[in-house]
């Protein structure tokens, strides 16, 4: 057995020796064939058209400054010397830039110079799919989005984003409507003004349209209703006026409609709950801080079974809260605060299975809140109903520890003797902070008071015995 083991060990050592010799020979061959390190680097260079390379460097240089030496720093931008924020893909055996992202996202990201500007070479990058600028144009460098040349990228560009650019001013070019391949248009927190171009309704592949945080004015174009595949529409924080166009009912795939903080009128759009429309995909409907006026639809809410967020705060609503809103079984957030709503609060709202926040404060609601103690305990401060002068709660059904904040106890449910005493003594009316009996005002029940009296008598007897 020992001889067999030695034989096996010898074979293994022989194989290792042959392997090491082969590696050494390959290394020597590489040195002989390469003729130096520079040739090795050249062999690894990704093939790229020189015209494309020059256009890439010129486009980036116009944003980051003339001192940027792209050809020296990144001789192989799609290969062994990649540029942070630039990605490439191969087409017909050659490499082309497909993604350009400029802005202080990472420590080594490309950042714009104080005098950044657009160059014509940007539109020569024929395979560009994604173009984004973050914090690139400060207020000291007012710059407009180019009005022309976007059609050169119509066959490739899928994403166009400008985020947080105080100096990006002027209108949204109508020519962006020619970007036939565009799927995402995000122009957020810039200083863009003027109208939303109706031409954007021609972007048939668009899935996301976000124009929030600008100074856009005028009406919402009815043409946006033609964007059948749109998933997210966010026009919040602008100066848009007029009614929400009924044509938006055509957005059957929409999951987010955010129109907050504008000057829109004409009531809550009826197409949201109309039987003739189908917005079953809608998850978030945000219309707060618009002078919409009108009242809440009395029916049709059950069609929005997937709705998770409904924000109608401060929109000038009048009338009652319809009981049919309790059919919003997927609702997690409901804001109806700071309106002029009247009538009772439907008790069935507490039965919403997924509700996590409900704000009804700042209205003219009246009557008795008929929610359970468990509802108030679970919601805490996420249920708000204060600033409704005619609203109260039943002390017999809800103890003071779980009472809704800022809501008074219903006067007709107080004990008669307590009411008479309050009137005679001129004391304040009962509320969530004022309780209905002398014992409970000390934080004790009647039984607890009786127990305390018995303990006091026993203690007095003990002291008397010790003195004797």
From TrEMBL:
Transmembrane segments: none annotated. The keyword Transcription regulation does not apply. Keywords: Cell membrane, Glycoprotein, Leucine-rich repeat, Membrane, Repeat, Signal. GO terms for cellular component: plasma membrane. It is found in: Cell membrane. SUPFAM superfamilies: L domain-like. It holds the Pfam family LRR_14. InterPro entries: LRR_dom_sf, LRR_R13L4/SHOC2-like. Residues 1-25 form the signal peptide. One of its GO terms (biological process) is response to other organism. Residues 171-370 form the Disease resistance R13L4/SHOC-2-like LRR domain. The keyword Cytoplasm does not apply. This is Disease resistance R13L4/SHOC-2-like LRR domain-containing protein.
